[in-house]
Design brief:
alpha+beta
Length: about 350
């Protein structure tokens, strides 16, 4: 289960309410360049040493989904055809997002103080800007309550990932986090791009190699090497960092796939444009599926959710195994956390040979 801003806020104020039910549908339609309240940190304005490139992904037919019992919403495996498209070679970085903020004055959802009118009955002292931060537990705990390791931290945002006392010093080339779907869509529009469809994302993640146990192959650690930034050790109290990182890693820290794309597995979750429905694969069109026309999650029927893909640095075979091929994540459109980012795609002609 992913962190959700509203549930954590509601439990914090002990009201027993699902604040999701109070979210305005208009929030999803938020556009870039409408807020002037945010500015980019000075140390990020022009310091990106790994500017993103876009890689052309040729169109083709592939098998989409997963046959694993743990992923019923990724079934049935079905044949899909996608047209060619361009995709960011890595996740959008802090430096790149800072350029967007500097150009537009955009303020992310995590930076906005919740409007009391949108949350009737919730005391104003609990309506503070912030976001979800993974906080390891002191000892091993049962894995049945995500609020043991997810904390709503006032002041946490893309530029203060762990809270007000943290900064982005030395993190220019890490993926931007604490980005909701609303924010990711705003960035994509500003950049002249869009968010990928779920089918495009999975086709690209396979790297032209087809369905395998892992996106990179059939072994978790070929020749003893970690191929993605995921969790090693005992979740959620002890991450050994055997892959070299605890938390998000700088982009391009692990090998690229067959298409030249980095971090399609692990590191941070990535937003897709599709609404989430667990039953969509049974009715998905074969050619260029765009996702269902509306959202439905039987666990939270009134909540608007979009698909997330790829897993994060918190995924492992012990917990959150949805870093594995074909699996799907989901998230409420205005919620964010410190393991959630995105990358963009673009429709343009194939490169000339």
């Amino acid at each position: 289960m992913q962190f959700t801003r509203a549930i954590t806020l509601s439990l914090t104020c002990s009201l027993g309410l699902s604040l999701f039910n109070c979210q305005k549908a208009e929030e999803e339609k938020t556009q870039a360049a409408t807020s002037t309240a945010a500015v980019a940190p000075e140390n990020l304005v022009s310091t990106d040493t790994i500017p993103s490139k876009m890689v052309y992904i040729p169109g083709g037919i592939f098998k989409m989904g997963s046959g694993e019992q743990n992923f019923p919403d990724s079934q049935p495996i079905h044949e899909v055809e996608v047209n060619g498209f361009w995709m960011d070679e890595h996740e959008v970085t802090n430096a790149e997002f800072a350029q967007f903020v500097a150009a537009t004055g955009y303020k992310t959802v995590a930076e906005r103080t919740p409007n009391a009118a949108d949350f009737p009955g919730v005391p104003e002292e609990y309506l503070v800007a912030g976001s979800g931060v993974f906080t390891p537990t002191a000892t091993a705990v049962p894995l049945d309550n995500v609020l043991q390791w997810w904390k709503y931290v006032p002041g946490a945002s893309w530029k203060n990932p762990k809270g007000p006392s943290s900064s982005l010093d030395g993190q220019q080339n890490k993926p931007v986090v604490h980005v909701s779907y609303v924010d990711a869509a705003a960035y994509a529009k500003w950049a002249g791009k869009r968010l990928p469809t779920e089918a495009e994302w999975e086709f690209a993640a396979q790297g032209g190699k087809g369905r395998r146990n892992y996106y990179w192959g059939d072994e978790l650690t070929p020749d003893g090497k970690w191929m993605a930034n995921i969790y090693q050790g005992n979740f959620p109290d002890k991450n050994t960092g055997a892959d070299g990182f605890i938390g998000a890693a700088p982009v391009k820290s692990f090998p690229a796939n067959g298409y030249g794309l980095y971090d399609m597995d692990g590191n941070v979750w990535e937003w897709c444009n599709d609404f989430y429905r667990p039953d969509y694969y049974a009715q998905s069109p074969k050619k260029n599926p765009q996702g269902p026309t509306d959202s439905f999650d039987p666990e939270e029927p009134s909540v608007v959710k979009r698909v997330q893909r790829g897993g994060s640095f918190l995924c492992s075979d012990q917990y959150c195994i949805r870093y594995k091929p074909g699996s799907r994540g989901k998230g409420e459109v205005s919620s964010a956390s410190d393991n959630l980012g995105f990358r963009c795609v673009k429709d343009a002609p194939a490169p000339k040979s």
